[in-house]
């Protein structure tokens, strides 16, 4: 991937994280990496593997295609899940990620039944 693509991916990651209401430290703990690594991903300074990107997409409630497809618009790739961010525990992030993945998959099934285009896996 080119440096330009990593920078674009990083911008999307940062926006998604901020929209989800998480700090870099929370994301780092969820992924089992350092906060600095999350920062590197967000600035496009480091490559990100597909597994880590998929985990971040789940946590943020975004379809993985949004991050991979440069021209993909966010409007059909994000799922909203209301929760109180105050006093979140590290283990709560795992539950939030699974719930958002479930909702994305449910939406994907709905789109399939209606014959709409879907990217969820």
Automatic annotation (TrEMBL):
Keywords: DNA-binding
UniProt keyword annotation of DNA-binding present: yes
Domain HTH cro/C1-type stretches: 13-67
InterPro entries linked to this entry: Cro/C1-type_HTH, Lambda_DNA-bd_dom_sf
Single GO MF descriptor: DNA binding
Domain of life, per lineage: Bacteria
SMART domains per the UniProt record, alphabetical: HTH_XRE (SM00530)
Listed name of the protein: HTH-type transcriptional regulator ImmR
Native source species: Neomoorella thermoacetica (Clostridium thermoaceticum)
Upper lineage: Bacteria, Bacillati, Bacillota, Clostridia, Neomoorellales
